[in-house]
Amino acid sequence: MSSSSSTVEPSDTKPLNSRGRVIFASLIGTTIEFYDFYIYATASVLVFPALFFPNSDPTSALLQSFAIFGVAFVARPLGSIIFGHFGDRIGRKGTLVASLLTMGIATFLIGVLPTALVPGWTFLAPAILVLLRFLQGLALGGEWSGAALLATENAPKNKRAVYGTFPQLGAPIGFIIANLLFVFLNEVLSPEAFLAWGWRVPFIASAVLVIVGLYVRLKLIESHSFQQVLDKGKVVKLPLASVFTRQWRPLLLGTFIMFATYVLFYLMTSFTLSFGTTAATVDQARTAAEAAGRTFTAEDAAKFVPGLGIDRGTFLWMLIIGVVFFGIFTIVSGPLAEKFGRRRMLLAVTVGIALFGLTWVPLFGAGIVGAMILLILGFILMGLTFGPMAAILPELFPANVRYTGSAVAYNLSSVIGAAPASFVALALWKAADGSTLMVGLYLSAAAVLTFIALWLSRETRDHDYDNNIG
């Protein structure tokens, strides 16, 4: 033990992985993962209701599509357990490669999956879609924590929050790439061609990005923090058991620290896309149904709930503009979290999220201009709250269970925050006959829970990250 300990470098020495390699490997991986995740989210609103649930009315088909979208969030905690176990047992590098491969293969297969419109696939197609969506969630459950550790465990002293913003930046970049591709396809293809085959292109194209990501990650060297765990014989046989028995308090706090971030993000993306592109009048809804080859019945008219009626391509551009602000303020959040501390900064941002929830009715009531303002404000808050998460969640746990602890907290939060967000928001909107009041209050309530968790936590900025082995 003494001889191995003597070879350990001080925590402020230059990391084994170069700065450029760390930044690119953490960024490219999460960009690919989130790109894959977002193309499903977009397709679940735009085409999957008609392709995989053709025998349901529009509202029911959309709800079923969102339900499959939520399957991934159920899988994510399982993914965090599986990938976290191996990340804490054998290392970060191999685990990150495995998570990327799993996501890439599942996404590609969605792109070549027959739809329920194909004879003989009416029930089989949705069932396979559920399975592939489950695999996507499994992969993302292990990806985020590994990428966060790759960045923060290789960060120079007093730069963890700054380095931690790079894997977080993969979220807006992946979103922008995915939606730019959908916008391009929407512009060059007719609605019939897009529905027939165009939607498959983003899924199949992900294979190219996965190859690039694998090439970069295979060149990584294990982090100094994990190497210390190996050198000092501190590897835990059952990381999950250790987290739940010895680290239950940071696990609980971490889960709710992330809660409002998840609710905000999926309301700003999936729900706003549904609300924004839903017809504003019955006549507009009838025209859209006929363009998609669907009969608009009297029952559909009776169930109709108005949205904003914004053209799909226009609203995708609005989302892309909003996500640009998401990316900018993700970068801004790193230096702020270093200067003011993670806890103090996030407390202030969470108050902002709670107040933002109260603006939904007046802003959406102002039409396309109000919707654009709402998207910009929401994504600014999203960048400020999401950016520091790659620093604060891993800092809650010692190095020998850090992968598992941060991954489980992050993904348990996805189950209670992200998974139901689109479904609950859609139900609240429908129940209120088109009003977004309850949706905004839902977001504000989530912010209150996160504020309480942050208030009960302690500042982690000055923790001895490298030498906190466990």
How does this model look, in words?
With 470 residues, this protein is an all-alpha fold. It has a single domain (15-456), classed as MFS general substrate transporter like domains (Growth Hormone, Chain: A), CATH 1.20.1250. The chain has helices spanning 2-6, 19-46, 48-52, 58-89, 92-111, 124-152, 160-188, 191-198, 200-217, 224-231, 239-246, 248-257, 259-277, 282-291, 298-303, 312-340, 342-356, 360-364, 367-386, 389-395, 402-418, 421-431, 437-456.
CATH uppermost class: Mainly Alpha
Distance between the termini: 15 Å
- The low-pLDDT segments are 1-15
Query: What's the helical proportion of residues?
Result: over 70%
Write the CATH fold name: Growth Hormone, Chain: A
Average pLDDT works out at 86
Number of DSSP E strands? 0
Rg is: 22 Å
Main β-sheet: number of strands, strand sense, barrel status?
A: none
The oligomeric state is single chain
- The fourth-level CATH homologous superfamily is MFS general substrate transporter like domains
Q: Overall 3D geometry? A: globular
Task: Please give the count of helices.
Answer: 23
Structural class: mainly alpha
Protein name: Putative proline/betaine transporter
Pfam family, one: MFS_1
Keywords: Cell membrane, Membrane, Symport, Transmembrane, Transmembrane helix, Transport
Family: Belongs to the major facilitator superfamily. Metabolite:H+ Symporter (MHS) family (TC 2.A.1.6) family.
